[in-house]
Design goal:
The complex is a heterodimer of chains A (350) and B (338).
Chain A lengths: L25 E12 L2 E13 L4 E5 L6 H9 L7 E2 L4 E4 L2 E2 L5 H7 L4 E4 L3 H4 L6 H13 L3 H14 L5 H4 L9 H13 L5 E5 L7 H18 L2 E6 L2 H7 L2 E6 L2 E7 H6 L4 H9 L38 H5 L5 E2 L5 E2 L4 H6 L4
Parallel strand pairs in A: 3-9, 3-10, 7-8, 8-9
Antiparallel strand pairs in A: 1-2, 1-4, 1-5, 5-6, 10-11, 11-13, 12-13
Helix pairs in contact in A: 4-5, 4-7, 5-7, 7-8
Chain B lengths: L8 E14 L5 E16 L4 E5 L6 H8 L7 E6 L2 E2 L5 H8 L2 E4 L13 H11 L9 H11 L16 H13 L5 E5 L7 H18 L2 E5 L3 H7 L2 E6 L2 E7 H6 L4 H9 L41 H5 L5 E2 L6 E2 L14
Parallel strand pairs in B: 3-8, 3-9, 6-7, 7-8
Antiparallel strand pairs in B: 1-2, 1-4, 4-5, 9-10, 11-12
Helix pairs in contact in B: 3-4, 3-5, 4-5, 5-6
């Protein structure tokens, strides 16, 4: 094989384990997103595919700059275009390609069928409107409810996300709430219209562990009640292990490993995943010196040739520098974008 | 690693109250934020004391008090026997040389207009006796090498470095005056997961090399366990439990420690359905108006009448081997329970 490996054949692979023949609820297929910047073209997402069924939780794991949030923003249709551009790929929701819909048709789906919780609730909420007004807005805009009815719905939702004394607090402003409570308000807004898919982008990163536990439990409960599918975007391997059904690990704008959660933690099939799992300290055991992945995450303006992980990889061979590894299917439910996934699974480093 | 002999840092009954004022022309004090409210501990040479707690528990104020960036309301901080809290002028300057800090955010704690050489060498401007002028550039280059940076990059600016490298610059600056104590306030929380391990390993290597004592403040309990010899758990300005890392993590006795530990996600999906979870209700109360008696009682599932009336002291309780500030202290392993 010689370089460059054109359009990696990730889309040929079964990205998902759903029952054969049925279309998953949401399927991202060979998605590419690029940004025009002054320094050059940034290819933030390079052929990402994943799929999600109702009631499932997919964790998208990756470091800053891996493209995990950009993929989510493309699904939501909230990327600023330009500078962003989607040169190819499909995002199918219930079989319809969202990228082919008109803006008004997407507005109908956004918020009603696919909703999003953002990381930083303080900057995502409008500081000059009361939280009640902001939650009620969902009902006024999408459901055409009158002011009073919408307010009643807002109080109901604040109760549902367990904000104490919702009736008294509905007229408070975002700054009057603690971080955890603000995140609950964000969640109330996102679940207001009973979406089928909830995208949670680092929903607990800014929060304390005890509050994180509260929020994650709330999300799990809401998910059970309504059989909602969830995409959880995070860099926290602990949170993923707690709630996810399956994992997509991203690195340098690509998915490097796609698998059910238990398989990844038991036996990772990509050197990056393996390195990450070995590099984190654990609360339940006192480790020796931590394994550290050497080097730095890639610069999106100047991506390494071949496999983006090759400069940091202990399994590297010559062809890793020249050929982009396709997403190899390991089993019906697992895949890894590593030429040497067999060696990684066996743990034989070079 | 905990060595015997005289502790290098002794903190006794340290209190910091920030006054709450009302009025514009005539200011009246209407209360106080009790950020740190009676904290005592020792730190020995070459030892790491981890301090954990949620935001607002006073751990960063404690760090500032240890650095003499805030004046305590009462209590004492002794660095190698010298009282930092009441020292002034030349004496304060001399004591401060021995205790340095690594900040949380490597993006805002480095001056963007100064070169790395100036940043790391700035401590020598203040404490010129450590390195004579002609010698400084060489010293700075040595420091960069020690923290794993290229000494040839001495003339670069902070923006030319990644987050992990910037944190190394901050560590080099902390090492410049050859202190015996370094206060690390959330040193890895702003870094990517794959970079965190590099910085933690660096801190451990430096500790062995220079026999440093660390105060390691973090909210990530896994990181704290990894690096600490002893751990103190703070809640609303007080230490509620303190002990060796195995005592705190494997045999916690205070309900707050247990709740905190049980909330930490374990990076292993096996048996996640059976893991014990203590979900605390609500948020911590305001430090301006802490609850009477035990401060944790408003969120505690064990609270009885005595908890509201009598403040539990930090002392060794029956059935436990380390101090805990709970009337009903009881060993309960939440991390390994399945």
């Amino acid at each position: 094989m010689t370089n460059p490996a054109p359009a990696v054949d990730t889309h040929l692979l079964p990205a998902d384990s759903g029952p054969p023949g049925t279309e998953p609820l949401l399927a991202v297929d060979n998605l590419h997103v690029e940004f025009k910047t002054r320094q050059g073209l940034v290819r933030a997402v390079n052929g990402v595919s994943y799929a999600l069924n109702a009631g499932e939780t997919l964790a998208v794991l990756g470091e800053s700059g891996s493209g995990k949030s950009v993929t989510a923003q493309a699904i939501m249709g909230i990327l600023d275009m330009p500078p962003a551009r989607i040169p190819k790929g499909e995002i199918r929701f219930r079989g319809t390609d969202l990228l082919k819909l008109s803006e008004s048709a997407r507005t109908q789906i956004r918020g009603q069928q696919i909703a999003m919780v953002f990381q930083d609730a303080l900057s995502a909420l409008n500081p000059v409107f009361t939280v009640g007004w902001q939650i009620a807005e969902m009902f006024r805009v999408h459901r055409g409810l009158r002011k009073k009815a919408a307010y009643a719905k807002a109080i109901e939702l604040m109760d549902r996300v367990r904000i104490p004394a919702a009736r008294q607090r509905v007229n408070d402003y975002p700054h009057q709430f603690s971080g955890g409570m603000r995140q609950r308000i964000m969640i109330a807004m996102s679940i207001a219209l009973d979406p089928d898919v909830l995208i949670a982008d680092e929903p607990t990163t800014a929060l304390d562990v005890t509050v994180q536990a509260q929020i994650m439990e709330l999300l799990a409960e809401l998910q059970r009640e309504s059989n909602m599918a969830m995409i959880l975007i995070t860099h926290d391997l602990g949170v993923v292990a707690d709630v996810a059904d399956k994992i997509a690990v991203m690195y340098g704008g690509r998915i490097v490993e796609n698998a059910p959660v238990h398989d990844v933690y038991k036996n990772p099939a990509h050197p990056y995943t393996k390195g990450l799992l070995e590099s984190i300290p654990r609360v339940d055991q006192k480790g020796q010196e931590l394994y550290a992945i050497k080097g730095l995450p890639p610069n999106l303006l100047d991506m390494p040739s071949g496999c983006a992980f090759h400069p940091r990889c202990p399994f590297r061979q010559d062809d890793c520098v020249t050929d982009v590894p396709p997403l190899h299917a390991i089993s019906g439910t697992r895949s890894s974008a590593c030429h040497y996934w067999r060696e990684v699974l066996d743990g034989v480093e070079r | 690693m905990a060595s015997n002999g005289e502790p290098i840092l002794q903190v006794r009954d340290l209190v910091k109250h920030f006054p709450l004022n009302q009025g514009i022309v005539v200011k009246r004090q209407i209360g106080a934020i009790k950020a740190v409210d009676g904290v005592s501990f020792d730190l020995h040479r070459g030892e790491t004391l981890g301090i954990v707690g949620e935001s607002g528990c006073g751990k960063s104020t404690l760090a500032k008090l240890l650095m003499a960036l805030e004046t305590p309301t009462s209590g004492s901080v002794r660095v190698a026997g010298n009282d930092l809290a009441h020292a002034k002028g030349a004496e304060l300057k001399r004591i401060r040389r021995n205790i340095q800090m690594v900040m949380q955010d490597p993006y805002t704690s480095l001056n963007p207009r100064m070169t790395v050489g100036d940043i790391v060498g700035e401590p020598f401007e203040i404490h010129s006796e450590v390195a004579p002028k002609g010698d400084r550039r060489k010293k700075v280059q040595d420091l960069l090498e020690v923290v794993g940076l290229n000494p040839d990059h001495i003339n670069r600016y902070p923006h030319q470095f990644s987050g992990g490298q910037r944190q190394r610059i901050g560590i080099a600056r902390g090492l410049a005056l050859q202190p015996e104590i370094i206060v690390c306030d959330e040193p890895v929380s702003a870094l990517d997961v794959s970079i965190q391990a590099q910085v933690i390993n660096l801190l451990e290597r430096l500790q062995n090399e220079f026999d440093l004592a660390y105060i390691f403040i973090a909210h990530d309990l896994s990181v704290v366990r990894h690096i600490s010899d002893r751990v103190a758990v703070m809640y609303l300005g007080k230490i509620v439990e303190i002990g060796k890392d195995t005592q705190i993590y494997d045999r916690p006795t205070h309900p707050y420690t247990q709740a905190l530990l049980s909330a930490v996600p374990v990076p292993d999906p096996e048996g996640r359905e059976n893991r014990e979870r203590i979900i605390l209700q609500g948020d911590p109360p305001s430090p301006a108006n802490p609850p009477s008696g035990c401060r944790f009682r408003t969120r505690c599932w064990k609270a009885q009448e005595i908890c509201a009336e009598e403040e539990p002291l930090l002392q060794i309780r029956p059935g436990a081997d380390h101090p805990s500030a709970c009337h009903f202290a009881e060993v309960h392993d939440v991390v390994h329970a399945s």
